[in-house]
Amino acid sequence: MAVDPVAVFRALGHRARLQIAEELGRGERCVADLVGLVGLSWPSVSRHLSVLRAAGVVADERRGNQIVYSLALPCVGTFARCLAAAARGQRVELRTCCR
Amino acid sequence: MAVDPVAVFRALGHRARLQIAEELGRGERCVADLVGLVGLSWPSVSRHLSVLRAAGVVADERRGNQIVYSLALPCVGTFARCLAAAARGQRVELRTCCR
DNA sequence: AGCGTATTTCGCCATCTGGCGAAATACGAT
DNA sequence: ATCGTATTTCGCCAGATGGCGAAATACGCT
C-alpha cells in the first residue's frame, strides 16, 4: 500500500478525521465508538474512515459482526501529539525519525 | 501564535504547499525560488504561502527588497521526511516527541 | 516625491468537499 | 433462506478551495 504524504496530510486536515486518528492512537475502536466520539452521522463518519483508510492512515479488520479500526501509521499519532503539545504552547521538537 | 493541528494538516495537505514546506526544511527561500520550485503562477504561490503562514507552519521576514520564508515548525520537516521515507517503502518510526 | 521590483490581494470560475437521509450491502446467527 | 444489526454507498445540495490575470500594495533606492 503506497503512502502518499499529501494524501496523509489531507486526510488528517479535518477536525473529525484528526480526532479519529488521535483516538485510534490510544487503541482500536469500532465504528460506533467513533460515531459517538465525533458527533456526526454514521454515514459521515464512515466516509471519513474511508478517506483515512485510502490514505493508509488507518486499517480495518472485521471482528465478529463489527469492524474494528486501528492506526496503521503510528508516526501519525506521535506527530499529532506533538502538534497538540505545540497548541498548548509547549515547546515542540521531534528528535529522531525513520530508520 | 496559536497552533491549530487541524490547520497545520490542512495547510500541508496540498501538493504545492507540502513541496514548499519540504524545501524550507532545507533552508530559507525567497518567493521567486518557490515559484520556480512548484511551477505555479506567482499569485497562486503567494496564496499558498499565506495559508502556510496562517497555520504557523512558515514564517516570513523581509530582507532587503525581498521576503524570505523559513520553516517555523521544524517538527513538520521531520514528519514530512518520515512520510517521504514511508512512501519509498522504508520502515517508518518516530522515536521521540515533544519536551 | 517618484521609480522599479517584489509580493499580495481581488474577482472570477470550475472543481472538490462535507453534511445528511435513504437505500444498499455485508455478514453472523437462527 | 431469512432476519437483524453493522457498515458503506448514493444522491443531493451548500459552501470551501484552488487556479489565473489584472490590479493593488509595499518597500528600498535615488
What is the annotated CATH architecture of chain A? Answer: Orthogonal Bundle
Order of strands in the sheet with most strands of chain A: 1-3-2
- Radius of gyration of chain A, taken over Cα atoms and rounded to an integer in Å: 14 Å
CATH superfamily of chain A: Winged helix-like DNA-binding domain superfamily/Winged helix DNA-binding domain
N-to-C series of helices and strands of chain A: HHEHHEEH
Structural class of chain A: alpha+beta
Q: Termini separation of chain A (Å)?
A: 19 Å
Largest sheet of chain A: 3 strands, antiparallel
Which two chains have the most extensive interface, and how many residues on each? A-B, 38 and 38 residues
Quote the average pLDDT of chain A: 93
Approximately how much helix is present in the residues of chain A?
A: 40-55%
* Global geometry of chain A: globular
Determine the CATH topology of chain A. Answer: Arc Repressor Mutant, subunit A
Comma- or semicolon-separated keywords:
alpha+beta, DNA-binding, 5 helices, 3 strands, globular, Arc Repressor Mutant, subunit A, 3-stranded antiparallel β-sheet, homodimer, 54% helix, 99 residues
Task: Explain what this protein looks like in three dimensions.
Two copies of one chain form a homodimer. The first copy, chain A, has helices spanning 5-12, 15-24, 31-38, 42-54, 74-87, and strands at residues 29-30, 58-63, 66-71. Chain A is of the alpha+beta class. Chain A has one domain (5-87): Arc Repressor Mutant, subunit A. In chain A, strands 1-3-2 form a three-stranded antiparallel sheet. The first copy, chain A, binds a DNA duplex (30 and 30 nucleotides) through helix 4.
